[in-house]
Amino acid sequence: MNILVIYAHPYDGSFCKGILDTVVPAMEARGANVKVKDLVKMNFDATMRPEDLKATVTKTYTAEVQQEQKDVLWADAIVTICPIWFGSVPGFLKAYFDKVFITGFGYDYTGGLLQNKRVFSLFTFGSKDPYLTLANQYKGIEYLWDNIFSMVGFKDIAVKYFQGVPRATDQERAQYLVEAIEFVDQIYDKKLGEIGQIGAGELLVKLVIEGKLVMPTVQIEE
Ligand SMILES: Cc1cc2nc3c(=O)[nH]c(=O)nc-3n(C[C@H](O)[C@H](O)[C@H](O)COP(=O)(O)O)c2cc1C
């Protein structure tokens, strides 16, 4: 099993780093080959540049994007670890998917080019319920993940939320780390497609494949 971990946090003292340092050995202990992408440490260029967008037509990717695409193809599962900022993922994580899953590599208007992959995402929040539910923060993540991962063909989209992280006690944090391991254990314990997707992505792709719905297309001039 090949697992690509995409880690998006700038601070080594974060709880996200604690999650990273916990789940990587846990997945390796179950036999996974794990590659970690620490987007800040690798200085991933989070700007969509003209040449990046042109690649939808030219299929010529920058060396940086090409390397990430190779690793995405290598992976059976992607694990993401990040904090929630303003109800969403950090912009530089979104930029990774914008650039790497771009039309022609990931997105293709007909259900996606990255079939039979899975994503397992762990998110930390500063706030707690009922605020998070009332502010639609879980829904926001789920809509976003549905629009990214089901549109490129992923079969499973699994999410795990950790609330109130900055004020969590040591005991609560220890429990969160146990839950983080249980969450990634699903990569081994649940079959491809068993978790399924969130939102309407799967239905939309089915309608497109059956010719009942046309995906909007984007024309880019060379
Ligand atoms: C720019 C910014 C925006 C934030 N927005 C939210 C938010 O919308 N909802 C929330 O629950 N916490 C928010 N937070 C708090 C972080 O999510 C929280 O501190 C973090 O998840 C704690 O985990 P960490 O130690 O891994 O950073 C925000 C923090 C920052 C820096």
Automatic annotation (TrEMBL):
One Gene Ontology term of the molecular function aspect: NAD(P)H dehydrogenase (quinone) activity
Pfam families: Flavodoxin_2
Gene3D superfamilies listed in its UniProt record: 3.40.50.360
InterPro entries membership: Flavodoxin_fold (IPR003680), Flavoprotein-like_sf (IPR029039), NAD(P)H_dehydrogenase_qn (IPR051545)
Keywords: Oxidoreductase
Domain Flavodoxin-like fold, chain residue ranges per copy: 1-180
Domain of life: Bacteria
GO cellular component, one term: cytosol
Family: Belongs to the NAD(P)H dehydrogenase (quinone) family.
Protein name: NAD(P)H dehydrogenase (Quinone)
